[in-house]
Specification:
This protein has about 250 residues and is of the alpha+beta class. About 40% of the residues lie in helices and about 15% in strands. This is Nitrobenzoate reductase.
Length: about 250
């Protein structure tokens, strides 16, 4: 990839294609078993590495799990996830979510949760079905490819910002190949299990997992499309010293 080359399509088509790849990315929670060729996985990671990164640190490390390796990892996590006596005392690798939920974040969290459960016909208080649905995370929602992302523990918050850009680049590059993804913080609770299963050294911290594959569009949970706030809700434009417009 020549990073200084001209676009391969017209400006209008380029705009539409990039916008489509970003806007069509959504979290898929049911995948087809259709294999993803290794060359496609490598191509996605190859293009994602060109994302922005402070002083070119490139803090990402990726473990790609497929086939029996993915099944063994899923089984190891499920054995603990389904055993309350083993599961209750586990802590996430780091604090991904706030310790205290406040509005509007708690409202958005609840909305997407109940929209998903509503599509699946899971009623409020049905803890068994909620647990089963959440447990599908650890099967990578049946995707043929699981991605486990880690970062060196000596790095700081800035490198996590870089990492977010890398993850987004992975997901957008996947859309460019008609593939879908689901980024998953659910794996954080089982970072010790994952590290043992994949021989990840202690100096590496789990960032998140991700499912990769072809969406099963017949599954009702994949009909979920979450809301996004309009630009006017989160942007302030500063034009001069006397005025600011939202």
């Amino acid at each position: 990839m020549n990073r200084l080359s001209q676009p391969p399509v017209t400006p209008e088509l380029l705009n539409q294609t990039v916008d489509w790849a970003i806007a069509s990315r959504r979290s898929i929670r049911a995948f087809l078993p259709t294999p993803v060729p290794r060359e496609d996985i490598e191509a996605i990671l190859d293009i994602a590495r060109f994302c922005a990164t402070g002083v070119n640190m490139q803090p990402w490390r990726v473990h790609v799990v497929t086939g029996e390796a993915k099944d063994r990892l899923s089984c190891a996590i499920a054995n603990i996830d389904n055993n309350a006596s083993l599961n209750n005392d586990l802590e996430d690798a780091y604090d991904y979510y706030p310790s205290e939920w406040t509005s509007p974040y708690v409202d958005r969290r609840r909305k997407v949760g109940w929209e998903l459960y509503g599509l699946l016909g899971i009623e409020k208080g049905d803890k068994q079905r909620m647990h089963a649905q959440h447990g599908r995370n650890y099967k990578f929602f049946d995707a043929p490819v699981g991605l486990i992302f880690t970062i060196d523990r000596v790095l700081k918050e800035g490198s996590l910002l870089d990492y977010g850009m890398f993850l987004q680049s992975v997901m957008v590059a996947a859309r460019g190949r008609n593939l879908h993804t689901c980024p998953q913080a659910a794996f954080l609770k089982y970072h010790h299990v994952i590290s043992r299963a994949l021989a990840i050294p202690d100096e590496q911290m789990l960032v998140c997992g991700m499912s990769l594959g072809y969406a099963d569009e017949t599954r009702i949970e994949n009909a979920l499309v979450t809301d996004r706030e309009p630009v006017s809700a989160f942007s302030t434009f500063h034009h001069n010293n006397k005025e600011a417009t939202s």
